[in-house]
Amino acid sequence: MTTLLVPGRVVLFETFSRYAIIPFAPIAQWIEQGSPKAEIWIRVPAGVLKIALRRFFIYNKINNEIIKSHDYRSSKVLMNWSVRKAENHDVGILVSMARRVADTYNREFLGDEVIDEFINSGACDKEVLDNLEKMYVLLYEDRIIGYCVLHDNWVKAFLIDIEYHGTGAAKYFLTELTQKMSGQYESLHLECFEPNARAIAFYEKFGWKHYKTEYLPDLKVNNCFYRLTTNWM
């Protein structure tokens, strides 16, 4: 990881080598009195330079000694997200995103053979095209950064673009979708591959309960089923 240091400024840095500098003033209250020469380093997830400030360290410029640290996940940070139905003109973006996430994220737990077949056979593209009418997209400003298919009381193909993992985008998107559906159904359901530990931890954190596991011989992986009880009346 490369870091960028600019005295008296907030410096955002991350693994994809994209940088942005924002004014020092918004978090100046965390600088201890008497340390006017302190520098702040802020790490944010790749590609999301103004959405979520995750952790920063204030270093003393003279001796490079850590003098304070703080976790910051405030909902007041700029988060210009919105959700809408997918449209025909979105297809190219959605297909590219589906391939990218499969290639860079799903490959880690499904393996090269499964992912290469999924992408090269056209199955990845077909999944998007076949579900477009029931698909919702997540936007950051005017950029599509995720999508999901809602089929009856099932949340299917929930996907966030790889650059926006860990930013709170998934939480926002899933909350918006479940609120939309909660007035219609007593419970909501979704599926998740068992090796996808990160996704499972995410769903369980927000109240989804595991109730069944099925083995998928073609993929040689367990598929886990989750349920969320709503406030339906």
Looking at CATH, the homologous superfamily of the largest domain is Gcn5-related N-acetyltransferase (GNAT)
Q: Average pLDDT, to the nearest integer?
A: 74
Query: Which sequence of SSEs, written as H and E, runs from N to C?
Result: EEEEEEHHHEEEHEHEE
CATH class label of the largest domain: Alpha Beta
Measured as a percent range, the helix fraction is 25-40%
**Named CATH topology of the largest domain:** Aminopeptidase
CATH second-level architecture of the largest domain? 3-Layer(aba) Sandwich
Uncertain regions: pLDDT < 50 for 5+ in a row?
A: 1-78
Main beta-sheet strand count, sense and barrel state: 7 strands, mixed
Number of strands: 12
Shape: globular
Radius of gyration: 21 Å
Please report the distance between the alpha carbons of the first and last residues. Answer: 51 Å
Arrangement of strands in the largest sheet = 6-7-8-9-10-12-11
